[in-house]
Write a structure and sequence with these properties.
The chain is α+β, with helices and mostly antiparallel strands. The protein has four helices and seven strands. A hairpin with a 7-residue loop joins strand 3 and strand 4. The longest helix has 16 residues.
């Protein structure tokens, strides 16, 4: 299994990592530490199987001249019955086009018509905590609600990760945006 993710600028990445650390120190969530070298991100796509060589060749072509995308996180949310807490960016035209154009160009790689990362199903988000019982979810929500203001940043890089091992998610390849 593979994921294709959007990676943030260093300032945004560090802020999310600080929140992950604080949630761990407060014994609220260890989400960030359940996968080796987890980095803050927004998932753009997922694949069950992938011709990696072909994908990387197409990645270099498609992202050769793509600009960084501005982000502004101003919402804290949760998926129903998931115990997940996330920051959601404002869904701008640039963000939607960034996601949609990716899926249109890489359509031949789609091997899951039910993927939640496809256009018209995608809810862009950066996970802060996951699989929390209701009381810890409430605690995490309250903490983030008072800890954070609007987070302005950028998507500065995209990466293909291997999520076959549930304890690791190594980057196979990445491409910086202009």
């Amino acid at each position: 299994m593979y994921g294709f993710i959007a990676i943030f600028d260093e300032k945004t990445e560090q802020l999310v990592m600080e929140i992950w650390k604080e949630l761990k120190e407060k014994s609220i969530s260890t989400y960030a530490y359940e996968v080796e070298n987890r980095i803050p991100h927004i998932t753009l796509a997922s694949y069950n199987d992938l011709n990696i060589k072909d994908f990387i060749e197409q990645l270099d072509i498609f992202y050769g001249d793509k600009p960084a995308i501005d982000l502004s996180f101003n919402t804290i949310g949760s998926f129903l019955n998931s115990g997940a807490l996330f920051f959601q960016p404002i869904v701008t035209k640039d963000l939607i086009e960034f996601h949609y154009s990716y899926h249109k160009y890489f359509e031949k790689f789609n091997d899951d018509t039910n993927s939640l990362y496809l256009p018209d199903k995608w809810i862009p988000h950066c996970t802060i905590a996951n699989r929390l019982p209701p009381e810890k979810l409430t605690e995490a929500f309250q903490y983030c609600l008072t800890r954070c203001g609007t987070i302005d940043g950028k998507i500065k890089e995209v990466a293909l990760i291997d999520v076959t091992d549930k304890n690791k998610a190594p980057i196979i390849c990445s491409k910086e945006l202009n």
